[in-house]
Design goal:
Number of strands: 10
Order of helices and strands: HEEEEEEEEEE
Mean pLDDT: 85
CATH architecture: Sandwich
Number of domains: 1
Length: 185
């Protein structure tokens, strides 16, 4: 009888310990703060890589193809408020590809002021698009970790990229949103 009481006591004690430990665990959530938004519809005719024609909206769009594997791009100066924080870049735009068998990407690189690439990321449009030669809305994001956003003077370069130079990669009505991501407990 005494042995059964000891086992019951130990069982109840282990449940109490397990419950109290699980209640003490802190839950980590992310808080995102919008730092900057950039939008282009490519209607500014001073941009070099624009094509006039069957745009998603307006008359112009960006094209990367065999004659130029880079589409129009944008350079973002990393704000001091992003230092020591994860930086998320959200891409929202309309994309049209000529084929799905070759790489079609939106490239983003975090660089120092001397042109050294600290981290290179990409959004692979083929994972979002199932039909060629049709404008498709794509929404995706990449995150640069806080441990490399550790000094002033950093930039994020972004551009459409058709590294194989096969077929076409068209982009229009692109919105890039830059967020500061902080863990909150």
């Amino acid at each position: 009888m005494k042995g059964k009481l000891v086992y019951k006591f130990l069982g109840v004690l282990s449940i109490i310990i397990a419950v109290s430990c699980s209640n003490n665990e802190s839950k980590t959530e992310e808080k995102s703060t919008l730092v900057y938004t950039h939008f282009t519809d490519f209607e500014d005719t001073t941009i070099k890589v624009e094509v006039k024609g069957d745009a998603h909206s307006g008359n112009f769009f960006s094209r990367a193809d065999s004659s130029n594997i880079y589409g129009s791009g944008f350079i973002f100066n990393v704000h001091d408020s992003l230092l020591q924080a994860d930086a998320k870049v959200k891409f929202e735009g309309w994309v049209r590809v000529g084929d799905l068998s070759h790489n079609k990407e939106f490239a983003l690189s975090l660089e120092d002021g001397n042109g050294h690439v600290l981290k290179w990321e990409k959004i692979d449009f083929r994972s979002h698009i199932a039909e060629t030669n049709k404008w498709i809305q794509v929404v995706d994001s990449v995150t640069f970790p806080a441990n490399i956003i550790n000094r002033n003077g950093l930039i994020i370069k972004s551009y459409s990229f058709n590294p194989d130079g096969k077929s076409t990669l068209d982009c229009d009505d692109i919105k890039l949103s830059f967020y500061k991501i902080k863990a909150v407990q």
